[in-house]
Amino acid sequence: MSRAMLLVCCLLLGSCGNVGVERYAQEQPKFDLAAFFSRPVQAWGMFQKRSGEVVKRFHVRIDSRREGERLILDERFVYSDGTRQQRVWTLVPEGPNRWRGTAGDVIGQAQGEVAGNALRWRYTLDLPVDGRHWQVDLDDWMYLMDEDTLINRSSMTKLGVEIGQITLFFRRMPEATP
Predict the structure, then answer these.
(1) Which superkingdom (predicted)?
(2) Which CATH number does 21-138+148-172 carry?
């Protein structure tokens, strides 16, 4: 097989699994990003290598606030090895069902699109690994299960090759009573 034909086959195979978020437009309940994060959220997750081996587990506390149209998400991670991390997202609506976001360890801007119960969130992360920094691409798919539960499955790639997956379960905390 010629190299050109092999390249075409690889490109066609790679595009087979690329489902757009609009596929979920009729799914319920409808995901409203700002409403979901209108009160504190906790999340539990894990990172798995390509082999499926779980190499890190973590808990996240997410507090949010509005600053005009901007939604600020303050994420505080505690990992199974005892390390801690903070990421503060600034999210801005960019037209109907679209968001863009920035954070200190995100390279450039994250792009998000909502349809039905789903949010697809894509960005490049500056990830510290063994004293070095890798630029990895994340493709997050979040699905609202009920008004208080969100499930996230992410693919992490470097140079187009998957290096692992992240699974997260988000739960909104009960509203405080006066």
Answers:
(1) Bacteria
(2) 2.40.128.20
